[in-house]
Amino acid sequence: MQIVARVICLSCLAILLASCDAGKPLVTENNSERCLDGGEFTMGSNDHYPEEREERRVTVGPFCIDTFEVSNKAFAEFVEATAYVTLAERGPSRAEYPNAPEEFFQAGSAVFEAPEQIGDRMTSMSWWQFRPDANWRNIDGEGRSIEGLEDHPVVHIAFEDALAYSNWRGRDLPTESEWEFAARGGEGPSEYAWGNERDPEGTEMANTWQGQFPRENMGTDGHLGTAPAGSFPANGYKLYDMIGNAWEWTKSAPDGRDPPSGLQRIIKGGSFLCAPNYCARYRPAARQAQDTGLGTSHIGFRTVRRPAG
Q1: For residue 73, what is the enclosing H or E element?
Q2: CATH fold for domain 1-309
Q3: What is the structure's pLDDT at 199?
């Protein structure tokens, strides 16, 4: 029952698995962030999943966004400075889930594991396992540490963990519209962050799944799991891994309400588990509702800051 309770949204995880049309806004650069003037862009898509519809014109203000996803090294520095304990390490709060059964409150996180068999009744339960010992330090729940993965994106991060880190840095999580504006890189309403071809001239542009998900990952992009920051080309705003590698939290709710409410937030960008035959969400317009109380082995984040006032 505990596994079922904590993986209510794993059916969504199985699936887990526009810019300024008049020209690119000014981009101010440094090693850690890109500062964008903002502007009007076409958000969403009419060509893919229903939740991406309808295309609409949206305006965002100026903001600065991390050049890279938050890394294991950066998150470790936060933990060292604050003694913060992630949700996966301590378990959910009864205050947030007052009606959940007792077994729901066990610590842990969801880990992808390729199924041994695929049949007609294959579901997300075939490849997601809730493991009590899985967390950002122990990424497979079976003792695999982050040693040697310091520059990979931190994963097994719940929404409140991402928000706590952001606040510690004096920053925030991006809204969905800010994130999508940045991901499009000034390319207009194109299919991908780099244009309309997924792999132009046979070049893998992001860390995704090559082969038939969930069994066959040929790894032609050089990675079977997360990749180090900067392993793939940056987009037009010189932002890395806006597509693929790890899903990223936004502070926006699925219904678009502001301020957001409820126990779900939108994640964006897809991950190393997204494949053409399943979860083709490695696109700026793609969006997925995610339970704020559940981390997984392919969800991370990046932060933003906005001008004062």
Answers
A1: helix 72-82
A2: paralog of FGE (formylglycine-generating enzyme) (3.90.1580)
A3: 85
